[in-house]
Amino acid sequence: MTEPTNRLGMSMGEKAARVGQLRRATEFVSRKAIAESLGIEDRSLRAKLDSDRGISDVDLRLAASTVEAHANAMLALAASIRERLA
């Protein structure tokens, strides 16, 4: 049995995976930071997370860049803390 697809060809599984990835990004950074990186209001981000609005490739790329920048800042902080201890 195959998954049903919408008229644009994205399966329900792919939509769910995109929502999960965007939700995970908001857990690592913050909903506010992700909304700002997407150039949308918090209300619009909530609609995307509730599957009321689609999540595009661009949305995911911007979210990934935001998470990556946050991770790099955390790594820099960890290195700074270790330097202080050395």
Short overview:
This protein is an all-alpha fold and 86 residues long.
Structural write-up:
This protein has 86 residues and is an all-alpha fold. The protein contains four helices and no strands. It has helices at 12-28, 31-38, 42-49, 57-85. Helix 1 (12-28) packs across helix 2 and helix 1 packs parallel to helix 4.
Features:
86 residues, single chain, 4 helices, mainly alpha, 72% helix
C-alpha termini separation: 59 Å
How many H/I helices?
4
Global shape: elongated
Total DSSP E strands: 0
Largest sheet: none
Q: Percent of residues in helical segments? A: over 70%
Topology:
Elements: H1 12-28, H2 31-38, H3 42-49, H4 57-85
